[in-house]
Amino acid sequence: MKIKLNIWKQENGKTKGKFEKYELDGVDAEMSFLEMLDYLNEKLITEGKEPVAYEHDCHEAICGCCSLYINGHPHGPGKETATCQVHMRSFKDGETITVEPWRAKSFPVLKDLMTDRNAFDKLMSAGGFVSIDAGQAPDANANLVGKIDADKAFDAAACIGCGACVAACKNSSATLFVAAKVSQLALLPQGKIEAKRRALNMVAKMDELGFGSCTNTGACEAECPKGIGIDFIAKLNREYLCASFSEAE
Amino acid sequence: MSKFFTSSIGQKFFMSITGLFLMMFLMVHLTINSLLLFGDGELFNVAANFMSSNPIMKVIEPILALGFILHIIYAGYITLKNKMARPQGYKVASKSEASWASKNMFILGGLILIFLVIHITNFFWKVKFGTVATIPYGDGELHDVYGLVAGIFKVWLWYDVLYILGAIFLFLHLTHGFWSAFQTIGWGNEKWTLRLKVVSYIYAIIVAGGFAFIPLYFLIKYIV
Fold this sequence. Notes:
The complex is a heterodimer. By secondary structure, chain A is of the alpha+beta class. Chain A has helices at 33-46, 118-125, 147-157, 164-168, 175-186, 189-192, 195-208, 219-223, 231-246, and strands spanning 3-9, 18-24, 69-70, 73-74, 96-100, 109-111, 114-115.
């Protein structure tokens, strides 16, 4: 198949970028989207032109590296898929595909389609961990976790931190990400101990980093490659409210 | 606690609380307005006069005004901050699944505010500070608020259109606002989020439909 590409090109964070048009012939429908970009880059290199910079790593939707905003959707077409799981069969022959980087003040563009998502690491450092001594690997059944809580915590833990929620949100809000991390740990016995501090610190950090606030549009949930639901945002709001009213600060 | 008021969730909390308060007001407002539909206006006049002279209402009125003001100020501030979170937008507008109303709450709110100003000058201002004709009632007399309402909807067809438009904007605002208010205060889970969304539509249909029915009723009564 033959496709037309409209890709964001930007030298670095300090320069202004613009869209570059490419035409690519001989694209196989069974190619993954990332393979198609490799194919494009090989062609560009052969022609002596600069290839398109984009991020990718595991190609099995667990690392959270790939981050392309394709035709108005973070991670392109398809429900609960990361960019690495998108195949060219999802597009029509002759279609124009517009590829943009995640757009958010907190995710500045490094080059072309690559953004600096260090803000998520900073969020994790603010409280997305358990600092108490959890000891050695415990005996099975030493820490009892109810089935419902275990399932919910697992659902939240599916978050790969790709930032699609921020990219999809009209406010560039990181609330779904923070909600997933806060909920996952608040549901488990080891994480429960620091749940209040965690909620307070992570939300404070989120605001400090310049992410917007949640206006409950649900766009994040619709685009999350791991299907994290906005019910976790309600849980974050609950956790944060309770923590705000009970913790002295 | 001190950081709560300036945090993003804290600000949303105030949007939610003021929104819930305003939604309760809408129910009271609609209940009284629905009396316009019964009898020759005496029932509505008694209710309207009771509401405008009741000492409790004197206390509630400024609280209600404060509810509106806080809701509007927070909306402006939050929207501005959220706009700043994405200095450069996308070339291809988001195609993510999200209701139009949820993405345009600020615009809808602005349209409702314009309607509200017209609405207040039409009725509230006249009843409170203007001269509304009085009619005898029992031993005393009543302000003929029914006459004022019926008059406006009778004289100018555009007022009927305007009030129906206002109700449509309100409907869209409420479809998102209702469940969103509960979500923000933490009432939501995999079952209740969907339930609240359904209740949202029911509430919005009752309230906006009720308000839109009043100008329609007068249209039919006087024109047909």
